Structure formats: structure tokens, C-alpha cells
Amino acid sequence: MSVKTMNPLRFSKILIVDDSAFMRTFVKRTLKEAQIGSRYYEANDGKEAISKYVAFRPDVTIMDIVMPNVDGVKATMAIKQYDPNARIIVISSKDNKETVQDVVEKGGARDYLLKPCDSSAIVMAVSKQIVVSRHKKKQ
């Protein structure tokens, strides 16, 4: 049995996408303190997120919506087109219904958290994606 199968939360790869360095640092610190993830990748816009997703194939991607160059909705759609099984969690201050529908229903994001969100909400959302996907692989 490999280490990764013993503790998928601890040994997962996580891509954090946000144009705010403060937010990326907050999410990364939150996950490290909860012992979730062993490798963290960061991107400050959707264009960089797409290329880093392709390069590193993270287990979970945490995506902001409002970013320069390519926004989070377009980046989510592009990543899901590349990998239909991508697990993307959106964390955004945009709470209008159309944006949520675009990214979750059309874009395929797995979860949506509204900023400001506390660290426990981030931990729960990421844990759920890693544990649920592991459970599905076993079936």
C-alpha cells in the first residue's frame, strides 16, 4: 500500500488560483495547518491556472472568479474541457446567481464558497473533494 493511498488528504496536490497574494497565502496556510496537501501550486490569473493545471495535474483546484487576463469561469471551463474529472472549488466574493450558475452548472465546479470565508469552510470543501473522489475510485 502506498503512502498516498493511506492518507490522500495529507499527500494531495493543490492548485490555488487568486489574483490576491494575501488570499493565496491564507488558503495555503489554512490547508497546511489542517495537514491537507503536500504540494501547493499558485497562479495569479486564469491563464496561469490553466497552464499549471496541465503541468501539475493537482488533486484539487481552488479558483477565484474575478481575475485579470482569463477569469475564473473561463479558466474552470477550460480545465474541465481538458480534464472532465477535475475537482474545482470556487472561492469568490461574487454572489450573484448568474455567476454561481455559470461556474457550477455550466463550468463544472464542484463547490462554491463565498468570500470572506473562514478556514473551516475551506478545509471542509477540500477534504470533501479528496475523500469523495477516493471513495468513487474504490467502487
Automatic annotation (TrEMBL):
What is one Gene Ontology biological process annotated in the Swiss-Prot or TrEMBL record?
phosphorelay signal transduction system
Pfam entry (one): Response_reg
PROSITE patterns for the chain: RESPONSE_REGULATORY (PS50110)
Segments forming domain Response regulatory: 13-130
- Residues annotated as coiled-coil are none
Q: Which InterPro entries match?
A: CheY-like_superfamily, Sig_transdc_resp-reg_receiver, ST_Response_Regulator
Protein known as: Two-component system response regulator
